[in-house]
Amino acid sequence: MDFPKIDSVSDRINCQLCNVKLIHKNDFKKHEKGRKHLKNLSEIRNKREAETKFICEICNKILTSEEFYRRHLESKSHKKKASKHGSIKDTVVFERDLSKNTQNFKVLSLPVPPSKSSSLNAVEQDVDAVAFHREKYKPRSDPLAFGFLESYIYSVVSQLSLRLALDPNVIQFKISVNDKKWHTYGDIVINLTYKRKTITKTKYAIRCKNISDASRTIDSLNDAKIYLNKEYESIICCRKREDYAQTKFVIFTTCNISSKFPNNVELDRKFLKNHMKSTKENIPNIVKVQPLGNRIDVINISSENDNIFSLFPESEDIELPQIYLYSNQRVLPHSVDEIIKKNFKFTSKFSRIYLEYIENWALGKLGGYYFLTKKDILLKIGEILLTPYVFYPKMINFKGGNFDTWNKVVEKTDVIVVQNEPFVLSKLCEPFNQTIEESLSVEDSDGTSIKVKIDSITKTVSITDKLIEKIKDTKLKAYLVEDCNIGKGSSEVRLNKLYNVFWKTGQISLLISLETSKDSKKLIFDIIEFLKKGGVHKKFLIRTDEPFFQVNLTENLKVFSCLEDIKDIVELEDIKIRISKNFTISLKNISQSDPFFLKWVSPSIFFDMILYKYTMRKNETSQINIQADLKIILDEETKKQILSTLYQTEVTPTGLGGRLIGVEPGIF
Known about the structure:
By secondary structure, this protein is of the alpha+beta class. It folds into four domains: about 10-130, no CATH class; about 145-350, no CATH class; about 390-560, no CATH class; about 565-660, no CATH class. Helix content is about 35%, strand content about 20%. The strands form eight sheets. Strands 13-14-15-16-11-9-8-7-17 form a nine-stranded mixed beta sheet. A four-stranded parallel beta sheet has the order 23-24-18-25. Strands 2-1-6 form a three-stranded antiparallel beta sheet. Helix 6 (about 150-165) packs across helix 10.
């Protein structure tokens, strides 16, 4: 992957809030007190306050306005639940109220370059998880209003969405097709935030005209069936519904422009009467057809760079929008694969899967008609490329348990690396299964619980339409509809589908098999890092048959392959190994005695430790061969403490080989 490299400048800081770069650290405090920074800070605070939501804690509901909240309080369902709680107290909780704490905004000031996952990324991830919202739009009355253009538009959107998502200068984009708001120019609409010298926001409303598989050369606009009077009328209709001051109206055609193509086009004077700024007479009714020269345009899918023309009225007294003509907009048969080849190892099935995804999205089959964003595309790229390496445990043995500490580790790491052992992999999936069951279990309107259980035999979960309606997590609901074809009554959803859904929501890790091939290993970690750099924060559990070494990995990824990797995010003092019925020793104490101890503790052993399955009492059945799996070295003071606790007498009982009786293994 080719990402732009940023030179390390340890003494300089970027202020992303103000879009100001390389401020010397000695001047940064002065900048924070400046008028521009304080103004931007105030605007963000006001925006956050405007997004305040009202929460009913009793019913666990979020209301978007005070009026809806008051209505909810008067509802029968709320009063019934409130009476069961023995209280009808009205409680309003403000979600994400940042107005009282300006410290929350200081994370917008980042050192250059960030050596580790920055606090800004953590905040963005949290916002993404809480405020997931798919902005929807209304399609034109006929879902296939573009008729025979359907396949062409899918191809164009597939190519453009990939190019924009992989362009490091594209900050954000939103794409819609067949958008009712834009009439005939709603074939493809792109809202783009792009960074060149400065950050610019542009909206492209694209109409596809005279599209053909055969190559054709035209001598005039009429040859391409483009009539400017009608084009302007169609654009003007959009004015009532959309402010198009920042919009570029574009006509895509597969035609080529010949050398005979005119430089000017005349408009009907009767049509112009309603679009004059002044009452002057004899105003030229000419539109200039001006080539924009050899330039690279972000939405130009032609192999040429001199194929873009502007159609602007010659006189400034004519008030008409500007139209751009993009000629030779031909989509090559394998253009999608070619784009992926430039960034990742080629995957033969990629184009077929991706084109099918775009088509289903355009037809509203993935949960309605919603804008496609950069994060949607990045996630889909990662999902498709990683599919060949995804595995699912053969044995699902859900036993339950308190996985809080383990879930905290999963949340704060990107990758967990474990040995390829079926039992180990199955037990590490227990928290995932618990998360799935708890997240899909909801409360009915009458207060009764609808519990969901995984069928351990069929490896399926029964999900009904009623259940989907009750799920409050909008992200989970969206991906369930998208991936599991839910919405047609009761559905038996396979567990592997749910694993994929819950990985997308960020609640569990995706299970990846680390191939022995060096190329495959590099590809897997390139994709994981690519997703994180793009702001798509997902978790991965990787199995491997070989020892894992963190070589050639950037500090951008937080990898957990031994306890040493996560000692800064867990409380070692709180995790203890039982020596006897009344005596335990903490991992912190052991690590202080043996500096290499933390390197011996694998994720699997750590998992057992936090569930208190790790014991050194010989008369208890341990689920782990401690002597083989773990080396423990204790200092003399700790040994004496163990001896005095275990044996109150002066004589220390020993067995065969001089080992202590009642302790396993022989650590003395």
